[in-house]
Write a structure and sequence with these properties.
2 strands
Length: 133
Amino acid sequence: MGWFLDNKNNLRRENAATHPSMIAKGAVTSTEEDYIERLRSENTRLLAEHKILMDNKNLHTLALENEVLAAIIDGHLFKERLLEIVKIVLFTELDTFLDNRFTKGSKYPDERVAEVKAKLDTLNNSPEENHGK
């Protein structure tokens, strides 16, 4: 006989051979065997249910439908983001154009056209040097 603390930290006197702390490691009691057997049967049941669900054609159809819908939603979100970027770029360019139009006057568009023409004139447009581009 020995003194042990139970789950509620009360001091109790028990037979050392039956106390859980004194059972040799690796020893399996009948309650543990029952518990292990219940776990194995539950595992077998769950595996059987999983197999039934995986073999269900309706499940595969729904999964494919969900993937298609997710791709469509991603496409719409991408389109919305792209439209926002285009709007920002266009409004930025428009703001710059209008700012320069009103600060530099009516000659601003003519200056821009002249700049672009000058850049085009500086490029060598011979196909041999541009590799056919």
